[in-house]
Design goal:
The structure is a single chain. With about 200 residues, the protein is an alpha+beta fold. It has one domain. About 20% of the residues lie in helices and about 35% in strands. It contains three helices and 16 strands. Strands 1-14-15-8-9 form a five-stranded mixed beta sheet. A five-stranded antiparallel beta sheet has the order 3-11-10-7-4. A four-stranded antiparallel beta sheet has the order 6-5-12-13.
Length: about 200
């Protein structure tokens, strides 16, 4: 399933306007039903169900301000999952990854489901304390990246129900990248994806 471009991105800044990742991808867009229409989302949802965990053990930020709440206290949260077999560009990352499905309640998109994968999502249960922030730290090490490296994930797939496979593009292995505006970044990154997919 293709992710919203720049929703899972690191090491880039936008000079004119914001550039903060949205940390999520919608699963469908047509009002009012918002059916699951994004190609490949069914396998993601089946994988999430297979790897589901109790919402009481997951915390995440939703909305502006960065306030973190327990997923079971957030009406919008419907499903949380912890994948233990995770790969980026075929490289196994020896650390789990957490994803949450939410149902948006805002007036403009009420009912639309999205997958969230913020670096601030955590899972704590039976002495196990996991965070996506730690996943991305380990992922950088495995990929030979620095904290400042510019890179992004543009696709996620599930194989064998319990394997999460990310496709990523390394834009600059050493340093961050700056773009005049988000449209410029989108165009450049799409070209990089097209090159990688050839």
């Amino acid at each position: 399933m293709r992710l919203n471009l720049s929703s899972l991105a690191f090491g880039s800044t936008i000079i004119k306007g914001g550039g903060t990742p949205s940390w999520g991808t919608e699963l469908g867009q047509s009002k009012p039903e918002y059916k699951f229409t994004v190609d490949g989302c069914e396998e993601i949802l089946v994988g999430m169900l297979y790897n589901s965990v109790n919402l009481h053990h997951v915390s995440l930020p939703l909305g502006k301000g960065g306030h973190i709440d327990c997923a079971s206290d957030i009406e919008a949260c419907h499903l949380a999952s912890v994948f233990h077999n995770v790969y980026i560009n075929g490289i196994k990352i020896n650390y789990p990854f957490i994803m949450v499905m939410i149902k948006e309640l805002s007036a403009s998109h009420s009912g639309r489901r999205s997958i969230k994968y913020s670096e601030k999502i955590t899972y704590c249960h039976d002495g196990l304390n996991l965070s996506n922030l730690e996943f991305f730290r380990i992922a950088r090490e495995k990929l030979g990246l620095t904290w400042d490296s510019c890179w992004f994930i543009y696709e996620v797939n599930v194989k064998n129900l319990d394997e999460l496979h990310f496709k990523a593009v390394i834009v600059n292995k050493e340093y961050g990248e700056s773009y005049h505006e988000s449209a410029e970044r989108k165009e450049i990154w799409q070209e990089l994806i097209d090159e990688q997919e050839r």
